[in-house]
């Protein structure tokens, strides 16, 4: 039986009506995520009492490498005597980062602010005062976004079930658990109201389920307290972006937004014995890999107990800053580059998709090559020094739509000592040939 036209019109209307709120949600999400997507680089600051002895944050007592009592003795050595948040913010800005995340409370439960809801905080140390507020203010003064790290689990809290790897406070006790959940909500409301963070970086969600944390309710509340707040995904899936840790993704993660968090040496917090630093060159190369795959890098530093930043870390941030400043047009506000196969290295694209940036981390042995690019080239130049480069197209056949190979000569004297960036200004939005080269089977 033929259905009347009105029926299809009606169906169409229903589909439109149903998808409209989804579309609107999508738009407001991308509006909210905009600064994060464009920021590319953040600095992750692990600061807590573990910097006193220079041992693993929280895990050292949880895993039994030090007794809980001895771990807590570090409270008396945490002075923050030379804490200079304006200096921190200046250095962060100089590195080229657009946001920073501070551990307001790690798994050990020690709060860097004077919490109404806990005894275990800065007032138990010689620092005595709120260390989070001046941090947030100094960042904002530099135009940087403020991120607060918060561990959902708290191995010190009397109402929290887990204490040490081989010792629990209790198995099930709904009264205690509900008290703990309320405590988490209370502390987070305190942080939200006092510091209005732009981003929360949760951690430690793995020990309980979404229902136990009340993750849905929590994320709703956080968004109510700070309507534009961004949440990382370590809140049992109720967050906005994925957080691969230490391991650089090899292919583009499926999540729309992601951020690799990585230490500069092998520790999150300050450890006087850890000198295994990555070089600035390695970090720059990791960074371009991240942005080429559409992600951010959140680079870790660990200040000392007196609030000073270790010299090696400061040096890394400054070197990174020189490079990011020189190449800023290829970094901020860009989008993920072209898929692997077109160029031997990471790439990014300008927001209008009309400039392709190539990242070159080696001295080329002859001209560099781009494959499968259908566009015409308006101009090729070296970012940061303006040198114009010439190119040649090789192997284009008039009877085939497979693009030729684009060869670009990059003279030695225009190379950057770390990663050189070449900008290809195209005649329009990038257009790629993504097929197999029109293979002709012979047998
Ligand atoms: C891990 C660790 C923690 C560290 C964090 C940073 O989840 O538990 O010590 O702070 O990673 O990503």
From TrEMBL:
Top EC class, one word: hydrolase
Q: Name one GO biological process term.
A: fucose metabolic process
Q: Which InterPro entries match?
A: FUC_metazoa-typ (IPR016286), GH (IPR017853), Glyco_hydro_29 (IPR000933), Glyco_hydro_29_N (IPR057739)
Q: Where are the residues marked May be important for catalysis as a site?
A: 261
Q: Tell me where in this chain the Glycoside hydrolase family 29 N-terminal domain is found.
A: 27-329
> What Gene3D superfamilies does the annotation carry?
Glycosidases
Q: Which GO terms describe its cellular component?
A: lysosome
**The protein's name:** alpha-L-fucosidase
What does UniProt list as this organism's lineage?
Bacteria, Pseudomonadati, Bacteroidota, Flavobacteriia, Flavobacteriales
């Amino acid at each position: 039986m033929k259905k009347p036209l009105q029926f299809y019109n009606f169906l169409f209307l229903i589909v439109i009506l149903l998808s409209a709120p989804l579309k609107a949600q999508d738009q407001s999400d991308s509006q909210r995520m905009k600064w994060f997507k464009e920021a590319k680089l953040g600095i992750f600051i692990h600061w807590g009492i573990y910097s006193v002895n220079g041992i693993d944050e929280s895990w050292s007592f949880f895993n039994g490498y030090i007794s809980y009592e001895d771990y807590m003795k570090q409270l008396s050595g945490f002075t923050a005597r030379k804490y200079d948040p304006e200096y921190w913010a200046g250095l962060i800005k100089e590195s080229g980062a657009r946001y920073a995340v501070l551990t307001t409370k790690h798994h050990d439960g020690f709060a860097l602010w004077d919490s109404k809801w806990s005894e275990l905080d800065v007032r138990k140390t010689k620092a005595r005062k709120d260390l989070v507020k001046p941090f947030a203010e100094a960042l904002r003064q530099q135009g940087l976004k403020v991120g607060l790290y918060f561990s959902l689990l708290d191995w010190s809290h009397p109402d929290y079930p887990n204490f040490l790897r081989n010792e629990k406070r209790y198995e099930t006790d709904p009264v205690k658990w509900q008290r703990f959940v309320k405590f988490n909500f209370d502390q987070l409301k305190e942080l939200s109201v006092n510091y209005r963070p732009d981003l929360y970086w949760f951690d430690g969600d793995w020990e309980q389920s979404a229902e136990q944390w009340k993750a849905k309710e929590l994320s709703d509340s956080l968004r109510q307290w700070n309507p534009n707040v961004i949440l990382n995904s370590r809140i049992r899936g109720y967050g906005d972006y994925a957080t691969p840790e230490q391991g650089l993704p090899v292919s583009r993660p499926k999540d729309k937004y992601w951020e690799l968090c990585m230490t500069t040496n092998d520790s999150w917090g300050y450890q006087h014995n850890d000198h295994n630093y990555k070089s600035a060159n390695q970090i720059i190369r990791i960074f371009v890999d991240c942005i080429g795959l559409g992600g951010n890098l959140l680079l870790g530093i660990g200040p000392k107990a007196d609030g000073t930043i270790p010299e090696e870390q400061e040096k890394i941030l400054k070197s990174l800053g020189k490079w990011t400043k020189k190449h800023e047009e290829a970094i901020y506000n860009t989008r993920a580059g072209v898929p692997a196969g077109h160029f031997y290295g990471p790439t990014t694209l300008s927001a209008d998709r009309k400039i392709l940036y190539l990242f070159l981390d080696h001295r080329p042995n002859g001209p560099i090559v781009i494959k499968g690019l259908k566009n015409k080239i308006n101009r090729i130049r070296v970012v940061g020094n303006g040198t114009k480069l010439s190119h040649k197209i090789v192997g284009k056949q008039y009877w085939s739509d497979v693009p030729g190979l684009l060869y670009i000569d990059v003279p030695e004297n225009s190379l950057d000592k770390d990663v050189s960036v070449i900008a290809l200004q195209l005649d329009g939005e990038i257009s790629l040939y993504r097929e197999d080269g029109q293979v002709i089977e012979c047998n």
